[in-house]
Design goal:
Layout: E1 20-21, E2 37-38, E3 53-57, H1 58-62, H2 69-73, E4 79-81, E5 91-93, E6 101-105, E7 108-109, E8 131-136, E9 150-155, E10 166-176, E11 181-191, E12 195-206, E13 210-216, E14 225-228, E15 234-247, E16 250-264, E17 271-289, E18 292-310, E19 313-334, E20 337-353, E21 361-377, E22 380-397, E23 407-411, E24 414-423, E25 428-439, H3 443-447, E26 449-452, E27 457-460, E28 468-481, E29 484-509, E30 532-558, E31 561-576, E32 581-582, E33 590-599, E34 602-611, E35 622-635, E36 638-647, H4 661-664, E37 675-683
Parallel strand pairs: 6-9, 27-30
Antiparallel strand pairs: 1-2, 3-8, 4-5, 6-7, 8-9, 10-11, 10-37, 11-12, 12-15, 13-14, 15-16, 16-17, 17-18, 18-19, 19-20, 20-21, 21-22, 22-23, 22-24, 24-25, 25-28, 26-27, 28-29, 29-30, 30-31, 31-32, 31-33, 33-34, 34-35, 35-36, 36-37
């Protein structure tokens, strides 16, 4: 199937997992703070969800808009960011990052190289999306071991799932003072009972980002010292076409999309990344009847490539090409049970050529079978599920690098989960989730062997790594009374053999020489003249992640004017239980609050976010203040939303405890200083 799969997407159909919940976000406007949201957590579209989940959309997403996915979600309960400057970051959920977080596009797989290295951006632009859904904890089981930390689902409606009558559209544009940035996006949709069409384009450009202090820069094109992050400028463009055919018992749709960006890597003053990604996706739903109510199928093919330039010279080129196929069937209710059973197939081929090719050519493939069931009762409901996988990871070496040799590993991970929801009163719910999860090591964890500039280390994989095994439990309580809302979740995850990239105490030359002589201490090997790096190796250690998340809303004024106090607190502790040492890059205690006011067409927000000192001492505590204002108006057939947002209003100098830059390039790339963004969103 893998050879013909990308050529025959039109023979397949797909559908996304949908669910409903009442999770809240800190950036939702006051008048809609308790509106239901849709989350990728329950394939049965239940009105009540057990797993902790939330979503941002509409005005809430607009006021969170950033140039990266990680920063757009940073600050949600339990969610932080890997922050590799303003142009590259992935979400961190409950202390877990990289390939332990599954990033989806419309519930389908995304393929890029962002999990391989912190300086590699996710291949999408948040400006082009309609909604972002976040699922935390063990409820992410359906998406496999790579979702052990959680799922982030980016929804762009490029394949429409509902019939349209007539034409609708949206226009966004904005300007930012913090980086001389400007962005714009246009989307249009039209259709009738038989078909629906979608088209969108977006563009974003920015200069070097302003910060509160002078930073040195060796880039000849930039000042030697300025209150700017050197080499932080970026340009990005994206576009897509999608179409859906509707018929009596289902639908089928196809989309093609592209994303291109060129950005500075910030850790190196003259290195830029030129990235291109092209994705073809198809999904649909077919109603069957009888024992099988419906069948959903989803497929995608992605071609991704990026080249790292040193000045004008092309350096290392990374490529990742892959396919994803997912089929699931929903069965009729049987003995109080309703659920789905499905299969998922995916494969990808990775290659890296150049001086920074620290991982070999490789191929990874996976076949999985999964099951999810729910049983409803008058007091609540129970859920359980399981997933078994067959994973194969192959290294093909690299003809240009002799130290890479062919190798192959096979794994059979299996994961199981159960959950319960109890309706104590009309206002109170209790939830609990348990999961036992296994993850197959990634190709770079097994076979890496080379200097990695983004981590300022020589990285060594271990071809003998075993499956990463963990058990997780989450307990939560939810309360809702009118406009008032509160939620708390407490979690504990224990890893039998967490895969950790840790220092060995050795050094390596860029040519792999072990502990080269450097008598003059200039960081260059005396014999070979190669740069010297500290050696870091992938090993497995016992680990424990514990923490809590609290969030809520309290309606202070409920009249013609509405005033809400939105608050959130979260904390994660992660420990190597063999040594008792804290694991690196874990978000410290965070406390935030926002006053959200609304009257008629006007809205305003004033809030702060406090980050405590990092437990490993890598970053001090800080408080950032933020303000925003909105105004809604009508203009013929269009609804206009004007907005202004002032980030880091106090121009506070801060450093992120979850960013590797804090230790690999200390002081080089703090989060942005004061920045004013103004813009307009028009819906017609």
């Amino acid at each position: 199937m893998s050879k013909s799969f990308p050529r025959h997407l039109v023979a397949m159909a797909g559908a996304s997992l949908c669910a409903a919940a009442s999770a809240q976000t800190a950036n939702t406007p006051a008048e809609t703070v308790l509106a239901p949201v849709t989350v990728t957590a329950n394939p049965l579209s239940s009105s009540e969800i057990i797993a902790p989940a939330q979503a941002v959309s509409s005005t809430g997403l607009l006021l969170r808009q950033q140039s990266t996915l990680g920063e757009a979600l940073n600050g949600l309960p339990g969610v932080s960011s890997t922050y590799f400057g303003p142009n590259a970051s992935r979400p961190i959920i409950r202390g877990l990052d990289g390939d332990r977080i599954r990033i989806l596009s419309n519930s389908g797989a995304t393929i890029d190289a962002s999990g391989l290295s912190y300086d590699h951006a996710v291949a999408l632009d948040p400006i082009a999306v309609e909604r972002i859904e976040v699922l935390r904890g063990p409820g992410a089981l359906l998406y496999g071991g790579s979702a052990i930390g959680g799922v982030v689902n980016v929804i762009d409606n490029r394949i429409l799932k509902e019939r349209l009558q007539g034409m609708t559209g949206k226009v966004d544009f904005g300007f930012s003072s913090g980086n001389s940035g400007k962005n714009g996006a246009f989307m249009i949709e039209t259709g009738n009972d038989k078909f629906a069409l979608h088209a969108d384009v977006s563009s974003r450009s920015s200069g070097d980002v302003s910060v509160p202090i002078n930073l040195a820069c060796t880039n000849p094109a930039s000042p030697a010292s300025a209150k700017k992050i050197c080499n932080s400028a970026a340009d990005a463009k994206s576009g897509a076409l999608g179409g859906t055919l509707f018929f009596d018992r289902g639908r089928i749709g196809l989309s093609v999309s592209s994303f291109k960006t060129n950005y500075g890597t910030v850790a190196e003053d003259e290195v830029t990344i030129d990235m291109k990604s092209a994705r073809t996706a198809l999904d649909g739903e077919f109603k069957i009847g009888g024992a099988i109510e419906s069948v959903q199928v989803q497929a995608s093919n992605t071609k991704y490539k990026h080249t790292e330039f040193e000045g004008a010279d092309a350096g290392t080129e990374f490529s990742n090409k892959g396919n994803d196929f997912r089929l699931q069937a929903r069965h009729a209710k049987f003995a109080n049970l309703q659920g789905v059973i499905g299969v998922q197939l995916d494969n990808n081929r990775f290659s890296a050529d150049g001086a920074e090719a620290f991982a070999p050519y490789s191929k990874s493939s996976q076949q999985a079978l999964f099951l999810y069931e729910e049983a409803a009762f008058n007091w609540g409901k129970l859920s359980f599920g399981g997933r078994v996988e067959d994973v194969k990871v192959e290294s093909f070496g690299n003809p240009q690098i002799a130290r890479f040799t062919p190798a192959q590993r096979k794994f059979k991970p299996s994961s199981y989960a159960a959950g319960a929801l109890f309706n104590l009163t009309p206002a109170w719910q209790l939830t609990s989730n348990f999961a036992a999860t296994q993850r197959a090591p990634k190709d770079y964890e097994l076979f890496a062997d080379g200097p990695h500039i983004a981590t300022a280390a020589y990285e060594l994989g271990d071809a003998n790594l075993s499956k990463e095994k963990s058990t997780s439990i989450d307990v939560g309580a939810r309360w809702k009374s009118g406009a008032h809302f509160a939620q708390v979740n407490v979690f504990n995850s224990r890893f039998k053999n967490y895969i950790l990239l840790g220092s060995t105490g050795n050094t390596r030359g860029a040519d792999a020489e072990l502990n080269p002589v450097d008598a003059d201490g200039d960081g260059v090997a005396d014999g070979s003249g190669e740069d010297i790096f500290p050696e870091f190796a992938y090993t497995q250690v016992p680990a424990r992640f514990t923490g809590f998340e609290l969030s809520g809303n309290w309606r202070l004024i409920d009249a013609a004017q509405k005033l809400d106090l939105q608050w959130r607190v979260d904390s994660t502790r992660a420990t190597n239980t063999a040594t008792g040492q804290a694991l690196p890059r874990i978000s410290p205690l965070r406390v935030g609050a926002t006053l959200a006011w609304a009257q008629g067409a006007w809205g305003a927000r004033l809030g702060f976010d406090h980050n405590a000192k990092a437990r490993d001492g890598s970053a001090d505590s800080y408080v950032l203040w933020n303000l925003a204002g909105t105004y809604k108006m009508k203009a013929k057939d269009a609804d206009l939303l004007w907005f202004a947002r002032l980030d880091n209003a106090g121009n506070k100098l801060a450093y992120s405890a979850t960013s590797i830059l804090t230790t690999s390039a200390p002081g080089k790339s703090p989060p942005p200083g004061r920045s004013l963004k103004i813009g307009l969103q028009a819906n017609f």
